[in-house]
Amino acid sequence: MGRVLTALWSPFRWAGAAGKRAITALPWGSGGSRRAGSVSPERALSLIPLFACVRILADSVASLPVQLYRRNGATRELVSYVPQLLFAPAAVDDLFMWLHKCVVSMAMRGNAYGLITQRDDLAFPTMIEWLNPDDVWVDELHPTRPVFYWQGRVVPAGDIVHIPWVVLPGRVVGLSPIAAFAESIGQGLDTVEYGRSWFENGGTPPATMKNIGKAINPDEAEEISDRLAARVRARRPLVFGSDWDFTALKVSPEESQFIETMRLNATQIATIYGVPPSKAGGETGGSMTYSTVEMEGIDLATFTLRPWLVRLETKFSQLMPGREFVKFNVDAMLRTSLLDRYRAHGMALDQGWQNRDGIRALEDLPPLPNGEGQAYHARPVRASTTKPGGTDEYG
């Protein structure tokens, strides 16, 4: 029966007063490991390009199948059973939401902090709850022996799962992208706020009216403006005297530079996260286009998701017993046509590096009965028939 750490929402097994510090010894009000400057995570997430990058990363990683393997000498084999940590990892969250929260924490704050709340009989974790980074502070005075604080109290290092994003040498806590790039993110927020205020306050005047026959005092100008606005709202025709000159004003959004500024900011934010700028509302950077959806998926998996997946795989594998390790199945996101997929399966069978049961598993089909699909059948390779002159005997 699993050993439950009942200390999740109650005080830990504190070692007397040694686990406490004076209120002035830690930045309790700093909001996590680093002060986020003038941009809070909640406000930063309201910026559409940043939200798009975080959503793409979290959705893509969380939607990938997670598989458990076991090392067997120089080879590896897929483990048939699924440990609890890979299907019911938290008290409330399923695996998708659990992975989603982990990636969001890493992308927003540069760190994911997990509290081990349940273990099996061999003391391996079976449940982990992700903590709010605002409640966690890390004493990095000795980087090889960091001390983790949660809600002001020391947490045993063995009960914390810490996954940082970008870490500087000699440090433990990962850089917070919102803190590190507060100026760029703040510029995007200021642009959105300025645009909203500009349009709410009417932008530029819709028109100008000039009387060339007499000078108009402020009171008369206000009355004329009110009458004109009332006619425009009522969609009724305007009547002009002989001395009035009416000129409508038109200002395109491009001339106000809102779109260009926001596009540039989106490109910068996408670059921070390694996400293709076009997916976050930025510039593509050139005329390169993807010939197929599959090629676009390969590019996203290789250059954007792979570093994130390796970080998670490395940490989760450390939580597994013995020779077992965790891998994400990236092939699940690469959509190919039915014909191309079946051709690839045929090549795998012919070349002997896959058996029928392995291919059936990729297609979500059960194994063949009586172990018929476990054998590997490679088509024999024909010996070379090239003549000394360089031509084949078959012409």
Describe this structure in words.
- This protein is 35% helix and 15% strand.
- With 395 residues, the chain is an alpha+beta fold.
- Strands 1, 4, 5 and 9 form a 4-stranded antiparallel sheet that branches. A 3-stranded antiparallel sheet has the order 3-2-12. A 3-stranded antiparallel sheet has the order 6-7-8, with no helix packed on it.
- It is elongated, with a radius of gyration of 31 Å.
- The N and C termini lie far apart (71 Å).
Task: Label this structure with key terms.
395 residues; alpha+beta; 3 domains; four-stranded antiparallel sheet; three-stranded antiparallel sheet; 12 strands; elongated; disordered N terminus; disordered C terminus
